[in-house]
């Protein structure tokens, strides 16, 4: 049972939310200008020192630092008049390899504001907004945000939680990564399992171009390839493992995509489905993580699904029970929650 807050309490919450919303723009400036990395690399600095080290204007930097300190995103030493990043802040803002890196999440949030007009019209018409119709910040932000979680969990805990899959990958397996985007998940697996071959599929051509470039930079292009194709039409058969990371709920026809996955798997193959964490009932998701995912689902996931054939619109908070229904409708007979994190649920699905 919820308790109705007083007006002052509710206004206090709104002030906090407004401050967080405004801060998202300033985080973007710090990201684009390298202010966080400069602050992390040079230790405590005055506004003048940070401006000099980053090649920016001192007056703007001073105001930016004050806002960051008020948000708790940087530390301020009033005695020395300097600003700095503590270790926790550094991991979130200045280290792209950190499992806690969060700049991609802010980048996704900023893309939502840029897409307000087209999403508002979709509310009126009931139509959709396809992935490729969104602002480019969405594509880059999504890769950065989810890569942090994949770095932390994919090889360390998700794949080991699947029955017999890790051994196959170590020996040499055929893997399809459907809806791969910029290829973060594909490349992480390829780096960990050099004896296996990986193919990433995505309908968004610019993302595939980026994925190929990232694979070259990571030194895994000899056993990784990427193709531009929709989820229901990706090529190949006899895959030992098919993966869909944080993308099944975005598809217009997830049952059709699941059916194609089943047809592409070996009889003893595995489908790894990673989805945003959610309970099966709304009341289980009324929390900070659910708030983020429902918001993203409203602005990104549901419009994406509605733009495609069928337009089932599972939404980012579908929950395991609804996802199992999709898998069983496609002909899969075995389904289990293999593991989970505060942000993801990891499903093992078999023919």
How would you explain this protein's 3D organization?
This protein is of the alpha/beta class and 351 residues long. The protein folds into two domains: 7-93, Arc Repressor Mutant, subunit A (Orthogonal Bundle); 108-350, 3-Layer(aba) Sandwich (Rossmann fold), CATH 3.40.50.150. Helix content is 51%, strand content 16%. It contains 14 helices and nine strands. The strands form two sheets. It has a seven-stranded mixed beta sheet with strand order 5-4-3-6-7-9-8, sandwiched between helices. Strands 1-2 form a two-stranded antiparallel ribbon. A hairpin with a 3-residue loop joins strand 8 (334-340) and strand 9 (344-350). Helix 6 (103-114) runs antiparallel to helix 8 (136-158). It is globular, with a radius of gyration of 22 Å. The mean pLDDT is 96.
In short:
With 351 residues, this protein is of the alpha/beta class.
How many strand units?
9
CATH-defined superfamily of the largest domain: Vaccinia Virus protein VP39
Radius of gyration (CA) equals 22 Å
Beta-strand content bin: 15-25%
- What CATH architecture of the largest domain would you give? 3-Layer(aba) Sandwich
Strand pairing plus helix content: what structural class? alpha/beta
């Amino acid at each position: 049972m919820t308790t109705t807050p007083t007006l002052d309490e509710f206004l206090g919450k709104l002030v906090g939310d407004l401050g967080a919303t405004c801060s998202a723009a300033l985080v973007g400036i710090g990201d684009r200008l390298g202010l966080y990395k400069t602050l992390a690399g040079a230790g405590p600095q005055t506004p003048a020192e940070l401006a000099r080290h980053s090649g920016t204007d001192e007056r703007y930097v001073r105001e930016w630092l004050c806002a960051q300190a008020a948000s708790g995103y940087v530390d301020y030493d009033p005695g020395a008049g300097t600003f700095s990043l503590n270790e926790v802040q550094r991991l979130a803002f200045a280290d792209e390899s950190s499992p806690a890196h969060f700049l991609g999440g802010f980048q996704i949030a900023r893309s939502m504001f840029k897409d307000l007009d087209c999403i508002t019209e979709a509310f009126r018409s009931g139509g959709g907004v396809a992935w490729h119709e969104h602002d480019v910040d969405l594509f880059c932000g999504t890769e950065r945000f989810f890569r942090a979680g994949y770095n932390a969990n994919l090889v360390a805990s998700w794949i080991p939680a699947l029955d017999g899959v890790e051994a196959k990958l170590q020996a040499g397996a055929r893997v399809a990564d459907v809806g791969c985007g910029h290829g973060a998940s594909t490349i992480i697996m390829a780096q960990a399992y050099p004896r296996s071959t990986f193919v990433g599929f995505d309908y968004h051509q610019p993302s595939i171009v980026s994925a190929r470039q990232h694979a070259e930079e990571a030194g895994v292009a000899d056993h990784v390839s990427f193709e531009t194709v929709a989820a229901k039409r990706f090529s190949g058969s006899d895959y030992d493992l098919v993966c869909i990371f944080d993308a099944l709920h975005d598809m217009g026809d997830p049952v059709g995509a699941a059916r194609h996955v089943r047809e592409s798997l070996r009889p003893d193959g595995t489908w790894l489905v990673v989805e945003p964490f959610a309970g099966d009932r709304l009341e289980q998701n009324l929390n900070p993580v659910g708030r983020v995912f429902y918001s993203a689902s409203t602005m990104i996931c549901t419009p994406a699904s509605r733009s495609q054939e069928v337009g089932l619109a599972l939404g980012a908070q579908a929950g395991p029970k609804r996802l199992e229904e999709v898998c069983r409708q496609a002909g899969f007979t075995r389904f289990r929650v293999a593991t989970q994190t505060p942000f993801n649920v990891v499903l093992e699905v078999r023919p």
